[in-house]
Amino acid sequence: MLETRTAGDPDDETIVFTDLSPTILSKKLNALGTPVCDDTIRQWMDEQNLRLRKIRKDLAGGSHPDRNAQFERIAALVDQYEGLGNPYFSVDTKAKEHLGQLYRAGRVRCNQPFQALDHDFPSWADGVIIPHGIYDPVRNRGHINIGLSRDTSQFACDSLLWYWNRIGKQCYGDADSILLLCDGGGSNSAHKYIFKHDLQTVADQIGVEIRVAHYPSYCSKYNPIERRLFPHITRACTGLLFDTLATVVELMRKAATSTGLKTTVNVIRRIYETGRNATDEIKRNLKIEYDNLLQK
User: Fold this and answer.
1) At what angle do helices 193-206 and 153-163 cross, to 10 degrees?
2) DSSP tag of 156
């Protein structure tokens, strides 16, 4: 009834587990001639630290040979930009969500439950929202551009352009370079020339150099935005319906902390084309300088 299993590598401690409830265990023990009530079993389980637990995503799904060198490089770049007074922003796209009377996980204090449709069919949604986040660690400010179309490189670059023109350059008017901290994949993939092309278009428009530092594969959780902005966006929205776009904007704007985080929100209504690829001409005309260390 109680089983053991070794989790992860052989050096891990042995896990003792059961998928039987105290009530079922009580019945089985009674049938074996050892009468024990379920409350006693529950108390014993608590004493043995046999508690209900979720599976934790702790095991690395892969590794990157340049992981440590890349982290050291990113840290050096951050110090360099801070020392010169140039901005560095952590950017990423949060998971897509649906608009409408669809169920959302979480709980909120209310005198009666909000009502949602009995099935979460995407076809019943009123649309999608794609939150692209930009986090400024120096100012402890977050910004979300909500897209209503697709998570493409052009959307990510439009998000940065909107942010810089309306917020960034007001705060860093003397900047001659911008550092972006990004994951290695997604709409800002390190391996997609179309992202480099769209980002160059942004740099040409704003007249400021843009430098990109990608986190190694399997290390996206170390991107500052994942710890210092997105959890607070999730907390501000948990347990509440995304019934209208106005509701989403209002909820996300409330994301704040006692340590000074504040969040601004904007909506980008442009429809984005998927499947764009960089042509040979685009690749030839890229005005890009690769880092001497860990070229991408």
Assistant:
1) 20
2) H
Whether 172 and 86 have beta carbons less than 8 Å apart is answered as yes
The CATH fold assigned to 67-284 is Nucleotidyltransferase; domain 5 (3.30.420)
Listed by start position, the domains of the chain span: 3-47, 67-284
CB atoms within 10 A of CB 289: 8
Rounded-to-integer distance, Cα 145 and Cα 264, Å: 9
To the question of pTM greater than 0.85 for the whole model, the response is no
Tens-digit pLDDT profile for residues 165-188: 999 999 999 999 999 999 989 999
- Which tokens sit at 210? 């843009």
177 with 211: CB under 8 angstroms? yes
Count how many Cα atoms sit within 13 Å of the Cα of residue 65 in the half-sphere of its side chain.
1
CA angle 97, 92, 82 (to 5 degrees): 150
Residue with the two structure tokens 């059961």: 18
How close are the terminal C-alpha atoms of the chain, in Å?
Answer: 53
Distance from C-alpha of 14 to C-alpha of 281, rounded to nearest angstrom = 58
> Could you report the per-residue pLDDT of 105-131, keeping only the tens digit for each?
999 989 999 999 999 999 999 999 999
How far apart CA 133 and CA 127 sit, in angstroms, is: 19
Computed on alpha carbons and rounded to an integer, the radius of gyration of the chain in Å comes to 24
- CA 111 to each of CA 42, 108, 114, 265: distance values in angstroms, whole numbers, following the listed order: 32, 10, 9, 29
